[in-house]
Amino acid sequence: DFVHVARPFQRVAPRFLRDPHWLRPLVDDAVHQAAAVARALEGVCAGIPHESELVIGAPVPASDMQLDRGAVRSRARGLVVPIALSHMVDATWFPAITGDLEIAPIGPSRSELVLNARYQTPEMPDAPSQQVVHRVVETGVRAFLQRLAAALEDEPAGSAPSLDR
Distances in Å between the alpha carbon of 66 and those of 24, 132, 163? Predict the structure, then answer.
């Protein structure tokens, strides 16, 4: 998936060169949204009425998610940030995801974030269907990219170092 950021690459890229702890709340929010979709899809599959979809079950603790960031690589057209995301308790609904987050300029005032990632649907007796897992992963990835773009756009211009300096 991908998203555009209304900030120039020179302002966006330095964020990814620093400590990745700032990504944690974005991942947590995205996982909560994916968990809501998982509960909704489980409810629909079980015949629970549509109005109850988002209140099925207890919230999945995002603190059970492990986020690892690899060494940032520079490319001719931007940066590549290896990431891995896995659920430490229950991989049946949110399988481990590994991939690269690419940050690239789109003209002088915009950037693009592209997440090229892979996952494997767990083969367990109680695992949700591949369709359900795919929708949950897709929702989580999209939510993460949207939150990431919003965080980068909301950052005051003087608070992050620029690559121009």
Answer: 9, 21, 30
